Amino acid sequence: MEECCFREDQELCIFYSSRLLELIMKKYTYAILVVLDKYGKLRFNEIQRKILGLTQRTLSIRLKELEKVKLIKRVVEPSEPVKVYYTITTEGKAVKNAMQILVSLANLLDNNKDAYLC
What we know:
There is one protein chain. The chain is mainly α. It has a single domain (17-109), classed as Arc Repressor Mutant, subunit A (Orthogonal Bundle). The chain is 50% helix and 12% strand. Strands 1-3-2 form a 3-stranded antiparallel beta sheet. A hairpin with a 5-residue loop joins strand 2 and strand 3 (83-88). The longest helix is centred in the C-terminal third of the chain and has 20 residues, at 90-109. It is globular, with a radius of gyration of 17 Å. The two termini are 31 Å apart.
């Protein structure tokens, strides 16, 4: 664990999860959270069809990562055949909203938009 960077005001230090912060910055994290927030519950292929350029492998990895940090929930319906859905959690909505706010603030400071957040 690193030391706090403040010499005298250590109460200003904030511990954070570097794993979560890295996941938030990965490609397609935001897009997955947005589509799950908009549509409620979606199956794997439905998510993939809604996000341009998202491969099965990347979607599978990202869903596992998001589930591990509790930003999404994997729901298994015991039917014949078994159906698996993904839904966004309250924490996932909070992260998505925070990302939108940060991008909006960045856009206020710099009108030279040159990329989409996915």
